[in-house]
Design brief:
By secondary structure, this protein is mainly alpha-helical. It has one domain. 81% of the residues lie in helices and 0% in strands. α11 packs antiparallel against α13. The radius of gyration is 18 Å and the shape is globular.
Length: 280
Amino acid sequence: MSTLTFLLVLCSALLHASWNFVAKKYAGNYSMIYLSFCISSVVTCTLSIPFLSDVELNATLVTLLITTGIFHAVYGFVLTFAYQNGDISTLYPIVRGSGIAGAVLLSIVLLHENLTSVAGLGVFTVISGIAILSYRRNRAATSPKGIFLALVCGSLIMSYTIFDKLLVTELHPIPVMAASQLISTIMFLPYVLKSRRTEMRFTLKTLMKPTVAISIIATSSYLIILYVMQIAPVSRIVAVREASVVFGGLAGYILLKEDFSKTRLIGVVFVMIGIILVKL
């Protein structure tokens, strides 16, 4: 992995942890996530126009676009409620750790990616560090429901990562991003109109700044990853991107006063060593 690619993925990791921190702060308010999809879809669909003339869609690409859009949409929906049921410093590593483990496995099996022994050790070390970070003797602040929802989010990450890798080999990243956000907007519109009207009005009146922040940060974070997927193996990208669990854990400890024990410090060290090995 080149130094530029490595730095881009680290930048994406920092952005990803940032928008998850904002989402945790307003946990349970799905209208924020939904409105962020709406804002992003308008921007990315507009930016996609210059690239549409070069797009030759077929049944396979359309199926992939729709499927990954659904996965992205459900991920945003489930993540909102996961953060209602536990600390971000516990749930975020579970979300990312299960996602990376699955994505690496699928990239090897389905995409036939090869890892060097050093890179493979790095990926294993990152996953081990994430497992340590998610461990807690006292889980009073994190319910079994929260852990289950975090694992669901991880499986969705695993799935859309592989689909997106396949898509960016054929399409420009911006139309890929636009399609997933547009599908997310359309898919949950009936739910928002039926069940979230009061919350939506409240969000529009008082929470547009954090909503716009989520939109900009989340879109920028994943666009970077889509671009990098065109030039680097998924298995290495997702491993390096897990620096986000370190950023997320530190944010939870510093800003939300969540627990950060010696065990978690060991987990951070494991993740960082693993990322260095993957870079090598």
